[in-house]
Design brief:
The chain is an alpha/beta fold. 31% of the residues lie in helices and 20% in strands.
């Protein structure tokens, strides 16, 4: 393996580019996250356009279209896993297809599960319903602060979320409770993520703090991260990547508070010497704007990333590849506040990557995993097909 080969894989969390053929089965017919954001006057994406985003089938935007000679190799990816959640999407990007969807609890969690959780935490439980994360602390925050009971809620995704005021349940205690919840939530209760949701403030002006922490299931099989780590490569995780993979296959990590910090930490890795991958998740698109149906906020986040894109591209070295993709959609213009079943883009750029190549639609997010491993000359052993030879 050649030393100093590096891949910078950036997941624009929820930046989908149009409904998949089975979107109606998920209640997502007509979703197109990027197009929805582009209708905002705050949307600007000239650099993504030059890279080739709008040359991809389905990737449309108000005022933007394909360019004659994209700077990168582009394609759209079709998810093969069952589901539209963060964990499933990221696992498939890393080479695992999930044949069965992770369990969801649209009516709330069963009494047996809550009983075990309450006993383990030593606290009572409030809510137990699907809820907006900002609305749930508004509706239950005062009761929580008065009695100390945990606010437990879910969404359309496979998650169990626990909200607690930092002055009532110290953050470290909340993290410990979530670790216990992760052990309890296995088998038929095996949700993709347990999420600690600390908040602060006074009624009615409660606000979530940036000390969120995710506790994911451990990937059931080997991923590209495990293979790279086994071969002595650096596997650096930026943002919530470490949490999504439960630390498996990661050699070093840094958590981030927002997209801006995620981009800056990625740029810092670009200035370091290593052989391997820097895997970054930029979560604000999904967490702050998609789930809150904030079209303008989503547009502003895409505009910020577009402004930073030239700096990311300019910091690439001779043997670096930049890969930009997503894990699902979250159309901020639809009545739903949940993820949407969409195709995702894959944009590849670097001195080793030819520009002007459009590979159409590829089956499986695992295209990313297989291509990364192929670049390092490693046995793939993941569920995906490399496109490396088509774009070099």
């Amino acid at each position: 393996m050649k030393q100093n080969k590096r891949v910078f894989l950036i997941v624009l969390d929820s930046v989908g580019i149009g409904e998949m053929p089975d979107a109606a089965a998920y209640g997502d017919e007509g979703s197109n996250t990027v197009y929805a954001a582009s209708k905002s006057p705050h949307f600007s994406a000239p650099n993504l356009q030059r890279l080739g985003l709008f040359n991809i089938e389905g990737a449309k935007a108000e005022g933007y279209g394909p360019v004659e000679q994209p700077a990168g190799t582009v394609m759209r990816l079709k998810e093969l896993s069952k589901g539209k959640d963060t964990t499933t999407g990221h696992w498939e990007l890393a080479g695992i297809i999930s044949a069965e969807p992770m369990p969801v609890f649209p009516e709330g969690f069963p009494d047996e599960l809550l009983g075990e959780l309450s006993a383990a935490a030593g606290r009572k439980i409030l809510c137990n319903r699907p809820y907006s994360g900002t609305q749930v602390i508004r509706d239950y925050g005062r009761q929580h602060c008065e009695g100390g009971a945990l606010i437990v809620y879910t969404s359309a995704d496979s998650v169990l979320q626990i909200a607690a005021h930092e002055d009532v349940v110290p953050v470290e205690e909340l993290y410990g409770i979530c670790e216990k919840a992760r052990k309890i939530c296995a088998g038929k209760w095996g949700v993709g993520r347990i999420i600690a949701r600390p908040f602060s403030g006074s009624y009615p002006d409660y606000v979530r703090t940036p000390r969120r922490h995710d506790y994911s299931l451990t990937p059931p099989r080997r991923t590209m991260l495990d293979i790279l780590k086994h071969e002595g490569c650096t596997v650096a995780a930026v943002g919530k990547i470490h949490d999504i993979f439960a630390g498996k296959g990661i050699t070093e990590f840094v958590r981030t508070a927002n997209n801006a910090e995620g981009v800056e930490r990625t740029l810092e890795y670009m200035r370091k010497d290593f052989t391997g991958i820097c895997f970054t998740n930029l979560v604000d698109f999904d967490m702050l704007y998609g789930h809150r149906n904030d079209v303008d906020g989503y547009a502003e986040a895409l505009t910020y990333f577009d402004r930073k894109l030239p700096e990311l591209m300019e910091n690439l070295r001779e043997d670096d590849i930049l890969m930009i993709t997503a894990d699902h959609g979250c159309d901020p213009s639809t009545p739903s506040t949940d993820h949407s079943r969409e195709y995702v883009p894959l944009l590849m750029y670097g001195k080793k990557i030819r520009g002007g190549i459009n590979l159409g639609t590829r089956d499986g997010f695992g295209t990313v995993a297989a291509t990364v491993l192929d670049y390092f000359g490693l046995e793939r052993g993941v569920e995906g097909t490399s496109v490396l030879q088509m774009c070099q």
